[in-house]
Each structure stands twice: as C-alpha cells, then as structure tokens.
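Q&A log
Question type: sequence-to-structure
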Amino acid sequence: MTVQAPSGSPAIKVITRVEDRPAIVVGSGYVALLIGFVCLVLAGWITYGAFSRDGYGDVHVSWLALFGAFCLLIIAVLFAGSIYSLQPNESAVLTLFGSYAGTDSASGLRATIPLFRAKKVSQRVRYHECGKLKVNDLIGNPIEIGAVVVWRVNDCAKATFQIDNYADFVGAQTESALRHIAGRHPYDFDEAGAHPVSEVAATSDPAARTLSLRESGDQVTNELVALLRDRLAVAGVTVDEAWINHLAYAPEIAPVMLRRQQASAVIAARKLVVAGAVDIVKEALDKLREETDIDLDPERKAAMVSNLLVVLVSDKDATPVVNTGTLYA
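Response status: OK
Response body:
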C-alpha cells in the first residue's frame, strides 16, 4: 500500500507499507551446514591435488584446479553465512539487497539462500512501566497517574520497516494514551459515587458520566488497552494487558481532597443514622399505640419523638431527665 500526492500538488515521499508473509526461501540449517562442509573438504582436496611433481622433481600447478577450489571455498563461505538459528518466540526478517523477502518463524537451525540477510526480531512478551505522570482529569483536578503495559511484537515486518525503534515508540504512545484517558474521566464522583459532579454531568461523553478513574479501574484499563492497540498497530505491536499502578491527587490538592472525602463520608453516615432513627421512632410509636392503652396527644407525641431522636442520633450517651410535673394544670 502506498500513499501518493494528488494531481497538481507538490510531490511527496511515497510511504510503503509492508506486512508479514512467510518466507519460501528457507530450509534446514543442517543441510546448508553439510553442503558448506562438503564444499570446504572438496576445496582442500582439489587444492592438494593441484600441486604435482614430474619425473625430474619439478612442481607443476594446475591453475584450473585452483580456480575450482577457490569457487568451492566461496560457496562454502556463502552457505556458512546463510545459516542462522532461531529460538522459540523469535523470527527472522529476510531481505535481499533491501527488498523484503518474507519472515521465517520456525525455531531451530535455519538457512536461506546465500546473499539473503536475516534480521532477528523477538516476539516475546515484554512490559513497559510508565512512570508517574502529572495530568489534569476531566474537571481539571491535577492528579498523578502511572501504568504498566504488557506488549509484544505480532508483525515483524511492520516492526522492522515501518518504525525506527518500536520499543521507544511503545513508551511514547503509552504516555500519550495515558494522558488522554486521564483527561476523559474524573478522578472520583461526589458522595462516594452516588451523584456525578456538575462538571461531569454537563459533558457530552457518556463514559465520563459513568466511569471514574478510582472506582472503574477495569473499564478504564480496557479503554487504555483498546486505544494502545489502535495506536501501535502501525508498528506491528499488540498490547495483551495493562493496569494502572499509581493513582493519586497531586500533592498540592491532596489534603483538601482528603478532607472533602472525609466530609462526604460523614454526611453519608449521618444520613444513614437519621433514616434508621426515624424508622425506630415510628416503630416505637406504633407498638405503643397497639400494645398499650396509652393514647398520647400530639404535644406529648412530639416531645417523645424529639427525645428519642436526640438519644438515637447523638454521638454521646444521653443523660435522662425525670419530669415530676405535668404539662397540664
């Protein structure tokens, strides 16, 4: 696939895109090793036979035999240079004078046609740890975030010909994608995630209204993996998994946000206590009316409700007060 300039526009450089394809000019390295060894032995034997003595003791040299021995020696050297070995999860990208000739992924001792050049590319699983980045979340809060990405090469031709250094490319794209993901989501929601903050609720991105960096770790990392796979496809690299290994507010706002989270937790706890106290008071009044003959007038009922709520909601033990009088003359 090539990219060309439109008609009438200035000429631009043509970009050639390549993809992995099996190499058909490879075979067992042991056969090439045997051929090279035989040629070397033959070259030595022919060279030895090229020198002879006549009946008078003079030495005669067969230049034709020496030329044949030299050719066999060159063949042995070429076959020896065509031999290479591959370990499991390793491939060799073959080129002939700069032209791509295919990829060999079979492990063991391998050989190709002499003059072919084999460049080894590891397809083992690797990981890249992106250090702590200081970014702004969706609503502008400065946060620190870091991630670990597990990746591997799945297209050796792309990794060799379409990118200069695919390992550095993975690091740069990981940092860029992590910044992008952190800017699309809030760090957290108000009231322990019950209701989104107003800035998040106003955004048009549905994912931002439902996912936070702190509470939705799996969904956020899945989004990061999908984004990295799309960006790294041009380099023949795929991402197996990723996870966020550091997430915190920036030091300058961390104390304020901690107090905010504590206040939200206290408010939620108070609401739970008040709701439970109201249920208890209602149940007490209902049982008092059903199981006794005491019929409280509204004023006494209000006083009882007030006293019970004070006892149930108060953080300290209540001090009982005995009323020896009456509210009515």
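Response note: DSSP finds nine helices and eleven strands in the chain.
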